[in-house]
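Handout, section B. The chain below has 133 residues.
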Amino acid sequence: MFALYTPQTADKALPEVKRLFENIIMQKNHVVALQEEIQTIIDSGSPFEGFINKKQELNTAVTDLYRAIEQLEATGVIIKSVDEGLLDFPSRRFDEEVWLCWKVGENKIKFWHGKDEGFMGRKPLESTGVIEP
């Protein structure tokens, strides 16, 4: 679903977006743990059966991770970095398409940046005027 967010609508959506993002982090951590288990199985010279079973478990976990990403991005919010906890909400500032920017640990939407700018180009919402719907 495509929707433009205002700072207000992004803040209203933030609790659900945070919940969906936390699920992505949990799924990613599960994938990493399974990858480590597979490497241990390989290093130990265990029989094929254990490796194959764990690999199938990993395949399911990767699929679950991608489903979780799809679920979050179906809200229109884009993940910029899972590892850094960066998400962008599409918005408009006057006649310009921009991103409202959120980072894990922030309690509300406080920053925006241009379409071609990244995290380093973040600007505070308060100093730039109102972002229009």
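Note. Residues 16 and 72 are 9 Å apart (CA to CA). Compare this with the example in section A.
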